[in-house]
Amino acid sequence: MRSARDDQLVRPTVEDEVAAAGSELIGGPAGRRALPVGGWWTPVRIVALVAIGMFALGMVQKLPCYNYGWFYGATTQYTHACYSDIPHLYSGRGFDAGLIPYFDRIPQSLSGGMDYLEYPVLTGLFMEIAALLTPGGGTIQHREQLNWLVNAGMLMACTAVIAVCAARTHRRRPWDALLIALAPAFALTATVNWDLFAVALTAAAMLMWSRGRVLLAGALIGLAAAAKLYPVLLLGPLLVLCWRAGRMRAFGAAAAAAAGAWLVVNLPVMITHDAAGFHIRDGWAKFYTFSQERPIDFGSVWLLISQRTGNPLEGANTYVTLLMILGCLGLGALGLYAPRRPRFAQLAFLVVALFILTNKVYSPQYVLWLIPLAVLARPKWRDFLVWQACEVLYFLGIWSYLAYTGSGDKHQGLPTEGYQLAIALHLLGTLYLCAIVVRDILMPERDVVRRDGSDDPSGGVLDGAPDIFAPGSARRARHAEHSGGTGVRWGTGERTQ
């Protein structure tokens, strides 16, 4: 028997033409006589299982490297596109030797020039726990393999958290999270680095905000920022949207909780004391100094410009900062002047995409930061798959390029010009999705999520709130009043005469 709750769920195979076409592989779109999903097989659990299955396929894709590519020959891990930082840094950052991150200096013979671990505190803790869970004994190669498996198991748990949180954030659209579960770039990059830990914390923060749990959402944003820097950017969209909706108390509570959670996990590592008094620990500061000092690197628009012009762009930090400031000001204006208050997920996706696009490096795994946000911002299969195709091509392109540069006279792989094309494709793919989201904000009738009359399902206290400060809306309302027409109270969708 069909339940009222099942009838309320949005089905992609009914709403989305690409999803409907793809569903032919499993029998076609759900019809009106289809049995509802119920019992143990809820949409959330199905999405989580699919995500875990795809993660496992991603692990299989790394099998050539697990067997020999990480250990025998530098180019094998590139020609098979199965590179991962995890086994290399297990010994390269002293975890195998029992060194404590941020406290113990790494011998130069291990690190190749890095004196301390260059990751934020919670990511360092994640790595340390995985190292402690790795069985000892055997060769270093065997221990690195086991450490990768332990890390992969922990990252698989993060994947399940991301899938569940994304499926529950939009109450009526749990099936949208299948885009995350089936995303090819997600499976390919999941074990390249430890980014999924921060992504899982961010997804949990988005879920808590959508439920109105302001303090918990803020605390999770602070913890996520202690694992990777980018989640702190979510406070920007919250500031703009809460200002427009007159919910500044909620923003203040979330920001205070974020700062408090970040300090709780960072202070014990940040501050040290000796005869000279209290000061910042060098090991803790390494992540921040490394981010400032590192040169332009793979995947970024700056590398593309540098390679094409021959200019090393030594002032890249200034360019990045300036573009980021201008971009954030533009997004703030978009949030305040848009005809209808943007959804939280839309501005969150745009600000993180801005950060990545203007950064000195656009690593393949950075796509993991965007995938959950993209699904919440624009759950349209065609646009998502176009973007994913660009990211998969770049994933293959960077490893093929590294194989080319590392194979000596053999030139086995993609030459520089081909790699530059791959960079351009993945930058344009991200810009394409950004443009679609901006269009949805400026033309809210095109927003897929709002077609059923919803306002902001991931907005929490913002969902259905009237606009208090919205210069654009006020101007339109005055125009409507003078012309004898109708205005719209955009926060609630209520029409006013």
Automatic annotation (TrEMBL):
Topology in membrane: Multi-pass membrane protein
Phylogenetic classification of the source organism: Bacteria, Bacillati, Actinomycetota, Actinomycetes, Kitasatosporales
Source superkingdom: Bacteria
Organism, scientific name: Streptomyces stramineus
Annotated stretches, region: Disordered: 451-497
Keyword Metal-binding on entry: no
Protein name: Glycosyltransferase 87 family protein
Family under the similarity heading: Belongs to the glycosyltransferase 87 family.
Keyword list, A-Z: Cell membrane, Membrane, Transferase, Transmembrane, Transmembrane helix
Record field: transmembrane: 40-60, 148-167, 179-209, 215-241, 316-338, 344-363, 384-402, 422-442
Pfam families: GT87
Compartments it resides in: Cell membrane
